[in-house]
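Go through this:
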Amino acid sequence: MSIEILSSEVVDQISAGEVVERPAHMVKELVENSIDAGATEIEVEFAQGGRWVKIQDNGSGMDAIDLSLCLDRHATSKIKKSSDIWDLHSFGFRGEALASISAVSRVTITTRQKGSESAKQLRSEFGKRQNIVEVGGEQGTTILIEELFANTPARLKFLKSDAAEGTAIKNCLKALAMAHPQVGFRVLHKGALLYFWPSQVNKQNRVEDILERSPLYIGSGECEGFKAKVVVSGPHVTVKNSRQIWIFVQGRWVQDRGLQAAVTEGYRSLLMHGEYPYAVVWLTCPTSDVDVNIHPTKSQVKFRDSSNAFRAVHRGIRQLLETAPWLKELLPEAATPSQKTKVILGAPAKEETLQFQAQEIRRVQFAQKNETRGSDKLSEEVDSIEGMLLRSDPVQPYVKRPISLSNEITPSLEFPESSSMEVSQDSRTDWGEPQNQNSNWSSLDVLGQAHLTYIVAQSQSAIVYIDQHAAHERVVYEKLMKQWKSGSFEVQSFLLPLEIALAEEELEALVSQQEELKKIGVEFQVEEEGLSLTTAPVILKDRSLKASIEVVAQEVMEQGESFALEKSLSHIFATMACHSVVRAGQALGIEEMRSLLVQMDEFPLSSFCPHGRPVFVEYSFNRLEKDFGRKV
């Protein structure tokens, strides 16, 4: 078969297949042209799944010369020379969209510039143009597309249902509206108004209007010239897929797995598996640091340094989430401080004053502090996890201390003898201002314990149930992360090495990372059937050491040579915390429960455990009164 040069008609149809893969892509190209023309108001109407589309704007319009050239291939006002591609400040630049669209549809363009006496109109039917005529019309440009793909039946067959294509168009317009909040949008379907988004100065307001979620929270991050603005939901508002993660680079809606990963990584330890947030990201950078010309539909970009882009997005989200801005909306207003909220650390648990029979107390599970541990004081050599949590003096970096392995103890909340603190309004004159100004949790009135698992407290407006295991788990996890970041791991040295049996592949994995593990205080000697642990972080209980070591081994085996301790620490520390804290079914005294709430105030993310489960639920008094028939 001989080689032949394709006709312009065939070339145009091939190009149309690349640029206009589906109606939504066509809408995107035309709306971006309107934005490039300086439009502040854009109206989009569509029908027949996008095979009929009308776009009207109030932009600058075109004169007769530009109108006659706009359907030519590679005709554009956006760039003049090749170097302009690396300094783009517009969305269109190839000059392909209108030429490709006109090759596979009927196109009518009506345009009028400011100051012109009349508008100009150009018609084209599947690539065949008619003469330009003068008509009446308002300033701006109106483009009408009819019978899209009518002359290419093969491509028409590959379109999805009208409903599916319509959904794609709506999503495209939502993205464009979020990318450009300064532009007002009206969207109609078959003449009926679907959306009206007036122009906004505030990105957060525009996103809340479009996603119909409120409140959302706004933050920012920066790294080496990359700047990210983010609007995100709290971890309690999620969806089951990543479709509500919207990424914009230089104002372009793009699909980028790396930046999407930056978003999900920002929510690390806050979401359960399979949960995704609502998140909108606007990323900007110097034009020389990004290539937008790598995909026919411009839906992908390439960064000179993708790691800086990742860090900017991740920082913007993580720094915002670590302030827990949702807590004021989620946690009911705290009760008025009273003697009930007073916490005295270093004092023994007081006897309950409620005059109930012992059997009844056990049934409703208002537990005494000493119910499970007896009155014997724990060995002073044992520096328990809870002792560390409530210690008022700073942790010294990497201190080794001997510890006996003679007895295994149940995780508990201890009160160091040297620290006393009051958290109550009526005691501030004696004790000064509380150390932690954030008192969302510690100002709750602790009532008792339900099912030996849930701390029962009250605010002014609700009863609050707090999962003691999940709450303590978050506190310990944050302590571990804090110590890791500051290089202040306190380490215990065992008088008798702790022997841990491991499979051969697990042992090999740990040996390969022996130097890395020393950074978190884990040192061991290799034995025939496992290892002998010689040092470990003080924060870990004997009963949790084996499980923690096994988790580290699994992480190393799964990631192989790409294993990086820092990237795996979140999972490792979450598992360490899970095995080292108070359990469900464990009785706690009132002072123990109050002291845990004090610790929760130190960490804004205390409303979720490290695995993303909620730490608390509330039952409003308003609902309670309705359930009892006191309110209608």
Remarks:
- The radius of gyration is 32 Å.
- The chain has a mean pLDDT of 81.
- Residues 491-537+542-578 form a domain with the Ribosomal Protein S8; Chain: A, domain 1 fold (CATH 3.30.1370.100).
